[in-house]
Design brief:
Number of strands of chain B: 29
CATH class of the largest domain in chain B: Alpha Beta
Number of domains of chain B: 4
Helix content of chain B: 25-40%
Order of helices and strands of chain A: HHHHHHH
Oligomer: heterodimer
Largest sheet of chain A: none
Strand content of chain B: 25-35%
CATH architecture of the largest domain in chain B: 2-Layer Sandwich
CATH superfamily of the largest domain in chain B: ATPase, nucleotide binding domain
Largest sheet of chain B: 6 strands, mixed
Number of helices of chain A: 7
CATH topology of the largest domain in chain B: Nucleotidyltransferase, domain 5
Largest interface: A-B, 29 and 40 residues
Distance between the termini of chain A: 6 Å
Structural class of chain B: alpha+beta
Distance between the termini of chain B: 49 Å
Helix content of chain A: 55-70%
Radius of gyration of chain A: 21 Å
């Protein structure tokens, strides 16, 4: 049973968040171990597994980006379908940034360099957010409307957008580190991968 | 289903509660004297073990074998805690794994100490119901890791309780506030106790209490407030009474009894400053009495950095929940330390709204534990708690990097699967190192355990396919199972907990626990009476030194005679004789005590503050009660 099936949903990306939450609460009432304490051991084991699956499914589907990541895993049948990749048109700029980062690590930043890096970081954050909006907006809608024949193309486009996003996240985190700001790595919910392969 | 009680096993105090079938409301169970809080203190005396209030009275007298705040050491290793040991008068002996405390000629582990507290609460409940109690829900700080949770469950077993559920303290508190006191919406529970801090962000809707994120610090609480006050006072005494200390030949910082008295005085002053703007502290030392006025502003200056340390975790939890502070609908305060006005102010500033504190912050967690117990027993079906795991769980991979399998703030129960194989031909054993924490490198995370997968059929490298399932159950405790996929047979796993007790350890402690049984009533009273006698002896000896100029030779003679009598009966088994001698001693020193009190009031302080001092429980001495 995949995570869409856990909720009785089709394999589509347009999910009504409020309805999903309601369904999650209903299903939790059915399968949470708290309500089956007096059950025989095998029943308890079954409930525990169902509850763990439900929680993983909710985690994978509630966030639009994580939902796309899960869909890609499901379609490709593997975990590492998306690898961080620099977008070709930004390669030159990335090269500059890496050099500036190197300098920052070895000697610290003067005000000019700091201002440049801050501006670059803001541009990259905007670019990352644009990729996210594209994935959860037009590409998700395209997936839901695509014919079986078109789906591989949409999937490929989503993978590419997520690969760019993953790359940008790393660079933005490095920039935040170099600028002496608290990194955001791992602190955002969407950064986590649901690791349940059913 | 048999009755399940709810227990709050606190750093400072512990409580037991149940849900009243008739009213459906949770209630705390008092002891025979009507006290609800059981101090989480265990004193190991040659005559037996004391717990609670009786143990608290041994804190100064038997500083070295009276164990308090042991929750700070639950599920920890010697290396983790060695830096703070200097603040404790009891001795933690260096050990490879679990913290081990020396009490006289034996050593005990934190779960064994907590077991004594749990057992006392179990017996309290048994007296209340007139029936045997075997099951309990026990609360832990939300930010407790797997080892700390395991240690708590082990404590239950050693104390004769089946811990059917470990519940997080802030979420328990939200259950106690329940559906009638909380609006539907987002709730933040700020829980600052004696030794731990938690923040949990929940969504309450349709009877579901869904934790969105939790964060905290398992080594931050009222104890730390007491510590900074104590150190500040110590410095003040050392500078103001330098000559006195030198004359007495006392190194205050190394005098466990004096430091314990100083800590207790600091704690009492802190508590008074929650309602008063200023308070006076009087601490009798060897040849002089230390007087000092403390204002609330001074206290706040001392503890502000510590209160500030709670705000980072609050922001992290909000970020993980994807919320801003302004999106929180309700704020609930839990834990005795939230009585401190500065704490309330900081919380209010952060969230921009007045926090809830209708329920007694000392009792609310136990009440919530009782509600959860009632849910498990099938008594409530309208409410359901969906909690999360506070820390990311991962395994060590090549280069010491942690690969995260279950992210923090994932709703539990939850599971993750990972494939393992062999790296050399014919390999039959595979090691796994499981960790918890948010850092990238294994060395910066908390080691939970090493697992050995054994009995793998010898095959070429990379051929075996072992599927390992990591499951975090509703207690937040990890279970690991492994299966060889080719054969479909379960692989055997040997667990080596890094900071935990092995199954064999726990078994042995369950047996040993009978030897740690609480002293019987007779013995307890004898110990108490001796304790009182000891207190009087100390006070009188001090009075003889400090008040030498206030008495004539005849009075001194009769005091010394009474003192000799008391000392001679102190070690006997005759409780009445000890009590009589103590009373006689009190009687004969009364006039001296009064003269000393007068002198103290006239001398050390202006008469303006006399009334204040008289009303102060730490009043100048020479006055054995």
């Amino acid at each position: 049973m995949n995570f869409f099936e856990v909720f009785g949903l089709e394999r589509k990306l347009g999910v009504d968040a409020a309805a999903l939450q309601r369904r999650f609460y209903e299903l939790s009432r059915q399968s949470h171990p708290d309500f089956h304490q007096a059950a025989p051991a095998e029943e308890q084991a079954r409930v525990l597994e169902a509850s763990a699956r439900l929680n993983a499914a909710y985690r994978a589907l509630r966030d639009p980006i994580v939902r796309v990541e899960y869909l890609i895993r499901l379609e490709e049948g593997r975990d590492d379908a998306v690898k961080p990749k620099a977008p070709p048109e930004l390669l030159a700029e990335m090269f500059e940034i890496q050099e500036a980062l190197q300098e920052a690590r070895s000697g610290g930043l003067d005000d000019g360099a700091r201002a440049t890096l801050t501006a670059q970081r803001e541009r990259l954050v905007a670019r990352r957010e644009a990729e996210e909006a594209r994935v959860t907006g037009e590409l998700s809608a395209a997936w839901d409307g695509a014919s079986a024949a078109d789906r591989p193309n949409v999937l490929a486009a989503m993978k590419e957008a997520l690969a760019t996003r993953a790359y940008l996240r790393t660079v933005v985190d490095d920039l935040a580190d170099a600028l002496g700001e608290a990194g955001t790595a791992g602190h955002t919910r969407e950064g986590h991968v649901a690791h349940h392969r059913d | 289903m048999s009755r399940i009680i709810g227990i709050d096993l606190g750093t400072t105090n512990s409580l037991v509660a149940y849900v009243d079938e008739k009213t459906g409301l949770p209630r705390v169970i008092p002891d025979e004297d009507g006290r609800v809080l059981l101090p989480s203190i265990v004193s190991f005396t040659p005559d037996g073990v004391l717990v609670g209030e009786a143990a608290r009275r041994q804190l100064v007298r038997r500083a070295a074998t009276t164990v308090y705040s042991v929750k700070r050491f639950m599920g920890r290793g010697y290396e983790d805690v060695k830096d703070e040991l200097k603040f404790f008068p009891y001795t933690v002996v260096p050990s490879e794994s679990v913290v081990s405390i020396r009490v006289g000629d034996r050593t005990v582990t934190p779960p064994e100490v907590s077991a004594v507290v749990l057992k006392a609460l179990k017996e309290r409940a048994e007296r209340h119901f007139g029936e045997a109690i075997e099951k309990a829900v026990v609360t832990v700080p939300a930010y407790f890791d797997d080892s700390q949770r395991q240690a708590t469950r082990d404590a239950g077993r050693i104390g004769g309780l089946d811990v059917v559920r470990i519940v997080n303290e802030p979420t328990a508190a939200s259950l106690a506030y329940g559906l009638d006191r909380l609006k539907e919406g987002v709730v933040a529970v700020y829980d600052l106790g004696g030794g731990t801090f938690d923040i949990s962000i929940l969504r309450v809707k349709d009877g579901i209490f869904e934790v969105l994120a939790t964060n905290g610090n398992t080594h931050l609480g009222g104890d730390d407030f007491d510590r900074v006050i104590t150190l500040w006072l110590l410095e003040d005494i050392q500078s103001r009474h330098c000559a006195d200390l030198e004359r007495d030949g006392v190194d205050l910082a190394r005098d466990h009894e004096a430091m314990q008295e100083l800590r207790l005085a600091a704690e009492a002053a802190k508590i008074r400053l929650s309602s008063a703007e200023r308070t006076t502290l009087a601490l009798p030392l060897a040849s002089f009495t230390y007087h000092r006025e403390i204002t609330r502003a001074e206290l706040e200056g001392l503890i502000d950095p510590l209160v500030g340390k709670t705000l980072g975790p609050v922001r992290m939890a909000l970020a993980d929940a994807g919320l801003r502070a302004s999106q929180v609908d309700e704020v609930v305060l839990v834990g005795g330390s939230t009585r401190v006005p500065l704490v309330r102010r900081r919380v209010q500033e952060l969230f921009g709204k007045t926090p809830h504190s209708q329920l007694n912050p000392d009792e609310v967690v136990a009440l919530g534990a009782a509600v959860q117990a009632h849910i498990l027993a099938g008594g409530i079906t309208s409410m359901l708690l969906l909690d999360v795991t506070p820390l990311s769980l991962g395994i060590e991979t090549l280069g010491g990097v942690v690969s995260v399998l279950i992210a923090r703030n994932t709703t539990v129960p939850t599971s993750a699967r990972e494939m393992f194989t062999t790296s050399v031909d014919g390999q039959t054993v595979v090691d796994m190192h499981v960790l918890q924490g948010e850092r990238e490198l294994a060395k910066d995370c908390r080691s939970l355990a090493r697992f050995e997968l054994r009995g793998i059929d010898p095959m070429p490298a990379g051929m075996p396919k072992i599927e390992v399932t990591f499951l975090i159950d509703a207690n937040g405790i990890l279970q690991v199972q492994a299966k060889e996929l080719r054969t479909g047979k379960a692989a055997s796993i040997e667990v080596k907990p890094t900071y935990g007790l092995s199954e064999a350890d726990v078994e042995r402690m369950v047996e040993d626990s009978f030897t740690y049984a609480e002293a019987d009533v007779e013995t307890r009273m004898l110990i108490e009476t001796r304790n009182e006698a000891d207190t009087v002896i100390t006070h009188v000896e001090r009075a003889l030194r400090q008040g030498a100029h206030l008495m004539g030779p005849e009075e001194r003679g009769s005091i010394e005679t009474a003192l000799a009598t008391l000392k001679s009966v102190r070690d006997s088994q005759d409780r009445d004789a000890i009590r009589e001698a103590t009373t006689a001693m009190n009687h004969v020193t009364e006039p001296l005590a009064e003269r000393m009190m007068d002198a103290a009031l006239k001398g050390a302080l202006g008469s303006r503050r006399a009334a204040e001092i008289m009303g102060d429980e730490d009043a100048p001495v020479g006055t054995p009660e």
